[in-house]
Fold this protein.
Amino acid sequence: MLAEIITIGDEILIGQIVDTNSAFIARELNNAGIRVKQISSVSDDREHILTALNEAAVRADIILITGGLGPTKDDITKKTLAAYFGVKLIENKEALENVQRIFKRIRGEDAIMLDVNKQQALVPENCEVILNKNGTAPGMWFNHNGKIYVSMPGVPFEMMYMIEDEVIPKLKSTLKLPFIIHKTILTAGEGESYLANRIADIEDDLPSDVKLAYLPKLGQVRLRLSAYGDNEVLLQQKVDEFSARIIERVKNVVVAEEDIPFEQVILNILTEKGQTLSVAESCTGGYISHLFTQHPGASKVFLGGAISYSNELKESMLGVKTETLAQYGAVSEQTVTEMVEGALHVYKSNYALAVTGIAGPDGGTEDKPVGTVWIGVATDGKTQVKKFTFGNKRTQNIERSAISALFMLNNLIKDSGK
Amino acid sequence: MLAEIITIGDEILIGQIVDTNSAFIARELNNAGIRVKQISSVSDDREHILTALNEAAVRADIILITGGLGPTKDDITKKTLAAYFGVKLIENKEALENVQRIFKRIRGEDAIMLDVNKQQALVPENCEVILNKNGTAPGMWFNHNGKIYVSMPGVPFEMMYMIEDEVIPKLKSTLKLPFIIHKTILTAGEGESYLANRIADIEDDLPSDVKLAYLPKLGQVRLRLSAYGDNEVLLQQKVDEFSARIIERVKNVVVAEEDIPFEQVILNILTEKGQTLSVAESCTGGYISHLFTQHPGASKVFLGGAISYSNELKESMLGVKTETLAQYGAVSEQTVTEMVEGALHVYKSNYALAVTGIAGPDGGTEDKPVGTVWIGVATDGKTQVKKFTFGNKRTQNIERSAISALFMLNNLIKDSGK
């Protein structure tokens, strides 16, 4: 069973927004045992949408479409779908009641509905309406020539609800689905080609229904085994066997045996140990805190900390000495040491991390060019600090600093072994 | 002149990574006057890649490909391109030298290069190599049947350098390009359909070479005018005329007259005024600080602040009273007031903002369900606090809290008029 995702919207094609919908839908489909064959992003243009639908129908059995369902004139998906199926638009009672409900909730009981709002309740007459709990544009399910088409709004939180609560359950109840099993191993500290070389013979042994992929990203490499087929037990056995062989071979660099982000690995370890973490962020400016706190349950481990962006706050929040800043500068071994030990002391956590650097694009000097970053991690009685020299791109310097800090912290936690 | 972007990689189709490369490339192409017709994401599969190349060649003049150039066995783009062009792979001297250079830089002068590394220097014989300053996989430029094909690594910072420093300049020098002019107006606080209704007559007047799009996102709507053609002066006049009419009509909700993020608007205003900002983040956990500090020059305005995730840190960092927390709880009008006034006082900034809430999925009660968030903004002598009730999705609650905080802060700055 193959799916294609079509995202509609000029804003994607001019790069104004990143298409995050496709990744979400792809993940949900995969978990349900449906492989995504292709993702296509096309413009708000009738002919182009029709071509994309025709091409997708050749490749896929299920075609999921997002975008172009808004109330405004540039949104033409609904009309185009009606043309594609050769039907007309009709007003749907259920959809109209939903528009009225949402409208009143947002605008108050007495607000007057506009014609453009009412038009949101028009749908191609061959569709089954999927209720949009979070917005006024209805989702639409079509059965046509043996294929399933689903059209959803492009607004992520409207689409996400529909996929999770309506579309996936309906696909599962309608179709007999094959099994897809993924197993991901997260490694850090070794490059893709070295890893590949170390496990080349294991890779050669892989049966044809199991694939291995390398997903490198900023000092980490994810190894992903994927197996497709009908016999779930057999697929699981194969994946288990090969993942065990790979993990045994490269265990010195394995950070996690599941597909979770690095910071989640640390949260899990510290949650289990009942230990806490605080931070002192300068050049990463809250990014590391955000990495931790985006995950449910972070508050069990993460106490908080200082975004000590200015020198004054490095002193007042963390107790960094005025003389240290004057003599060595904010980006120095001495300052990062005082920052991380300050955080550990002031915020009374079991572990602390600190980052201070020059993220750029300005602020570099000959001695300390843009990309110079000092990172420190500490626990009671033990402080480790290290200098990094990254590149000249601000966003990358922030992200690489974060990953490097996680790497140092993870090692410190492992070394502490308590 | 039309382009298509093809991103290759199973990791995209199973939703393990979000394809951010396409948005970056699309933005760069648009700025250079090249329209992107379609973005297609396909799997690491020879036949599928060949089909995608054939389909793209029908639609587009320029085909930009990323991904599948790594040293490992799942990376088959290079072989597939050679087959598509009907040529063989040969070793490229320049590419090999680059592999050696990068390899020694990372591994040290004495490290032994692996065969898989050397194979990175193999390229289809009809290509012109594009140097990869940041990695070992060479970029490749092909002229074939009147079309341009460029293949680049999927690692973002390798691809980004190539696009900016090599591919765009070479496209500009090779082609006679038409003009594309975009103008974006950022609004906040009014829904898409209301906005559309207010400017419906202006939209009706738009000439055929100017398009208007609505890009809604979490309480903000971007209005984007786009004009395509040969006469730059005339296009600019049309865009200027219609953007002026739209701005005049909806000026009460216009936040910016350019395509910049909301937090950048605030940074720009405070930079101009020479004023500063500090934060006290609880449930947003560093996200708002990160929004500000991702932008160059943020340090002129943003002093830093507290990630006061635990109650203890709300007391010790911001001076929130123990009795306040005991009597009203961490998520309350009283606590957010003490937090924001504490930040203003302790961090000595001109403005402060504070957020405390229940991001979820756990931690809600009957009185204060998940999604309950108190936000406060303050300046000398003036504090404004407000309660919000968002939904039950953690990530969205964090993002909506951030946007709402920016909205309140922007209004406070405007009202303060100093």
